[in-house]
Amino acid sequence: MKYGHFNREGTEYHIDEPLTPRPWINYLTNEKYCSIISQCAGGYSFFDDCGGNRVLRWLPENWEYDRPGRYVFARDVDSKKTWSLSYLPIRAPYEKYLCRHGFGYTDIEMLHDGIESKVQYFVPRQDTCEVWKVTVKNTSRKTRTLEMFPYVEWMIGDYHLELRYRNILNLYNRVKYDKSSQAIWAQKTAAWDDFNIQPFPGTLFFASSLPATGWATQKLPFLGRYNTEERPEGILDGGFKNTEFCSGEDSIACLRHRIKLAPGQSKSWSIVMGQTNDKKLAQKMVQKYRKLSVVDAERAAVVELWKKRMESGPIVQTPDPEFNTIINSWVKYQTYICNLWSRSPSYYHEGSGGRGFRDSCQDAEGILSVDSDHSRGKIIRIAKVIREDGTCAPGWSDSGPQGHRPNKDHPVWLTSTVAAYIKETGDLNILKMKLPFLRDRWIKGWDINTDWKGPAIQVGEASLFEHLWRNLDFTFHDVGDRGLPKIGHADWNDAIDAAGIKHKGESVWLALALVRSLKILAELADRIGETEKARELRRRTTVMTERIEKHSWDGQWYKRGFRDDGIAYGTSKEKEGKIFMESQSFAVMSGVAQGDRLKKVLASVDKYLDGKHGYALFYPAYSTWNKALGRISMFSEGTKENAAVFCHMATFMAIGNCMAGRGTKAYEAMKKIMPNSQPDYEVYKTEPYVYSEYLVGPENPHHYGEGAFTWITGTAAWTLIAATEWILGARREFDGLLVDPCIPSDWKRCSIRRPFRGAIYDIAIENPQGVEKGVSFVEVDGRRLDGVLLPIFGDGKTHQVRVVMGKPRRSESGADRLAKTSVSAR
Questions:
Q1: Contact 99/15 with Cβ under 8 angstroms?
Q2: What pLDDT score was predicted for residue 323?
Q3: For residues 635 and 764, what is the distance between their CA atoms, to the nearest angstrom?
Q4: If you write DSSP's letter for every residue of 95-137 in order, what string do you get?
Q5: Which regions of 290-354 does DSSP assign to beta strands (E)?
Q6: Rounded CA gap, 82 and 568, in Å?
Q7: What is the model's pLDDT at position 815?
Q8: pLDDT per residue over 384-431, tens digit each?
Q9: How many CB atoms lie within 10 A of CB 472?
Q10: What is the largest CA-CA distance in the chain?
């Protein structure tokens, strides 16, 4: 690759050209503090919630020039030369530059004018701060006297209020250098949200392990008039001025240190920055991370923690090393980041904060094979935002309420996550856990109770199964004239936001997703003896399937939905938006599409939606605003929901291809969106090690194949599911681990190492006949198995499994029938 490469183990990405086409970033985080950092140390940090508790400043357009960030400026006292240890922002020429993004850390190394430097950034396992370890070495033949300036720009507090009222919010800033602690402390005088003014709870801090010979808290005197971080006047001209107190203006934290290095001598020190609601705890963190021995030990522990996480769960070996690198580590890492912070904190998104209901369900399911305990905690948290009527809050926030209108698809997602958790762990008791309901200003999943005052509250309690039942019960009855679920404000596709604003529009996709979830909940009901509800769920499955087949088939594919005026969209009669991927993928995944209709769906997807960069979300793109559908038609062609190659949906179709026995097609769908297999990074632009939300679609006039909105996307979780459970075919079931690979016909051998319920299954897959799907026989520890469902050993041992693909050599067994039922329910 032109800009960098993976290390041999695939556990680091090395960037040796700093000016990548877009900032290539990393997330350094625990579950309370997060630092988003680019290859040149740009980016921002936040505490607790990226919307309500920003630490560092960031604006939506800042990704275009990747500033500000966490910088260490350097100045040679004798030569007056000035540079930054991360190349940006000063951009002085260098002899060497290297950024190493790893799991939980980023290191940036440079060599400039005989000074070798390394800055190691990480976030501790528990403490709500970030630590930089700086090392500089004199590689020249003369003694060097250097001034070093660690620097950040504060934002402090609510990101959206700052965007709207920066001139006002700045007036609340109070930043002070304290000589006794040799640290910079920052706060706002108060926190303001819709006139609900409260004391600002946070204490922000910035400190170094070196003695400070200078300090700055005011931005303008440090940078100088009309300057940016690229030309900090206070450093470039040697006229650094102490500013001990900043009140009511843009604020920074900068310390000045002076060091002298003999030839060959090096010097290391630490910088700690963070936020907490406990001033004493903040002081303890400052003192703790001034000790280099503590810094080194904690960094090693962070690296080891993430190493263990990446080694957990499935490990695959296939003929494709790019596939192996992404699935074995980087997509797990990305899935963790999504589980920790959902969809809001990034270089690109709006940064409103909170965790989304729908997103968290999918993320929790995706990480199950790696960390089922995390999934369990997330399931319990998600269930608590289900209302008594079965509707859901759109999500939750640790720093304030999530106030926007919920989408209609939220109730269908938690059921599959819970079922997957039970299949992974065997923990049926979770369905009996008593959990409260949410009560807030929203009623009927759409309306606002104008009499409601105050925050949301928790009321009553019922079993988790009852929560799931009410979810699906609401969606089954919240239907339009055709008996299909109403789309309301939007379904999975957030941009179809006008088709149901009169509360009459219906969603075919949501009907298909509901059928899938009804089948899954029926299985759960059977498992806990809820026989009557299981029967009713299957009846509803049949009813909804019949409605879909009656009203939604368009001749060659399934329609997308019906607008408020009753007109269908996603049909061959339309000039634009004829065929949508959402309906076709879920027609397969739900089991609704059968026989001739299944063949036609797959043929239509191949003909209209597949392309060299992957599956487009629909075809053709909208070229003009369609008032009856909404903002889906407002985006530029091929961007966002207007017919982009939406990677999340492409993984659904990859699974659909596996269910249909099309292993080569499934693999191709995965490869086309895979970040490390892109043919041209001048076109793709974004990181080669994590997935984009979408690639610009084929009808865009300029940027077909360009990656967009990286890291925080459901693509990560579903890629892990599609690759390990469907392509490699090691799929969890209630009574064992199913082996049902669906692979490219030219893969002769592959394998997957799969931990499952207290044992390790080393599954070697042989494909002597070059088939895409079908198992001839399975051997476990040298003995032939009757069927394809591996038993639950739970003995802590490793078991050798041999899977030979081909035409089955025996009559269908009970295990096969179970497998087919389970596949259909998925």
A1: yes
A2: 98
A3: 46
A4: SEEEEEEETTEEEEEEEETTEEEEEEEE--SSSSEEEEEEEEE
A5: 315-317
A6: 64
A7: 39
A8: 999 999 999 988 887 655 556 678 999 999 999 999 999 999 999 999
A9: 22
A10: 86
**Is residue 36 a contact partner of residue 722, using CB atoms and an 8 Å limit?**
no
Positions of the chain with pLDDT lower than 50, given as ranges: 811-826
Separation between Cα atoms, residue 364 and residue 417, nearest integer Å: 7
Whether the CB-CB separation of 87 and 72 falls below 8 Å is answered with no
Q: How many helices (H) and strands (E) does the chain have?
A: 20, 45
CB-CB neighbours of 120 under 10 Å = 20
Report how far residue 188's alpha carbon sits from residue 251's, in angstroms, rounded to the nearest whole number: 11
Q: What are phi and psi of 201, to 5 degrees?
A: -80, -20
DSSP code at position 484: P
Q: Could you tell me if 114 and 139 are in contact, meaning their C-beta atoms sit under 8 angstroms apart?
A: yes
Task: Please state the φ and ψ torsions of residue 779, each to the nearest 5 degrees.
Answer: -120, 140
Q: How far is residue 407's CA from residue 487's CA, in Å, rounded to a whole number?
A: 8
Q: Is the dihedral of CA 344, 299, 720, 695 positive or negative?
A: positive
* Phi/psi of residue 276, nearest 5 degrees: -155, 165
Q: Which residues contact 633 (CB under 8 A, 6 or more apart)?
A: 576, 577, 622, 624, 625, 626, 642
pLDDT of residue 202: 95
Point out which residues pair with 136 in neighbouring strands: 117, 267
At 391, list the tokens.
């509707």
The residues pairing with 580 across neighbouring beta strands, listed in sequence order, are 618
Q: How far apart are CA 177 and CA 253, in angstroms?
A: 9
Spatial distance between the Cα atoms of 713 and 292, rounded to a whole number of angstroms: 36
Contact 385, 445 (CB under 8 A): no
Cα separation values, 804 from 748, 754, 756, 767, 780, Å: 10, 17, 21, 6, 12
Query: What was the pLDDT predicted at 354?
Result: 85
| Phi, psi of 287, rounded to the nearest 5 degrees | -70, -40
pLDDT at 397: 82
Q: Pick the closest to residue 730 from 720, 740, 718 (CA basis).
A: 740
The DSSP annotation for 52-71 comes to T-EEE---GGGGGTT-SB-E
CA distance 648 to 617: 10
Residue type, 719: T
| Per-residue model confidence (pLDDT) at position 442 | 86
For 451-510, what is each residue's pLDDT tens digit? Answer: 888 888 999 999 999 999 999 999 999 999 999 999 999 999 999 999 999 999 999 999
Q: What is the DSSP string of 296-311?
A: HHHHHHHHHHHHHHHH
Q: How far is CA 815 from CA 255, 422, 722, in A?
A: 67, 19, 22
Contact call for residues 672 and 781 (beta carbons, < 8 A): no
Yes or no: say if 53 and 275 are a contact pair by the CB < 8 Å rule: yes
Q: Is 807 exposed, middle or buried (0-12, 13-18, 19+ CB in 10 A)?
A: exposed
Contact 803, 790 (CB under 8 A): no
Q: What is the pTM of this model?
A: 0.95
Angle at 675 between CA 726 and CA 763, to 5 degrees: 30
Q: Which among 346, 288, 255 is positioned nearest to 716, based on CA atoms?
A: 346
The radius of gyration of the chain's CA atoms, rounded to the nearest angstrom, is 28
Sign (positive or negative) of CA dihedral 45, 51, 54, 56: positive
Cis peptide before 68 (omega within 30 of 0): yes
For residue 174, the one-letter residue type is: R
| Residue 397 DSSP code | -
Residue 729 neighbours by CB distance under 10 Å:
24
Contact 288, 270 (CB under 8 A): no
Please report, for residues 81, 93, 472, 506, the alpha-carbon distance to residue 485 in angstroms, rounded to integers and kept in the order given: 67, 60, 11, 6
Amino acid at 402: Q
- Contacts of residue 410, defined as CB under 8 A and 6 or more positions apart, other chains included, come to 357, 358, 391, 392, 394
Q: How far apart are the first and last CA of the chain?
A: 38
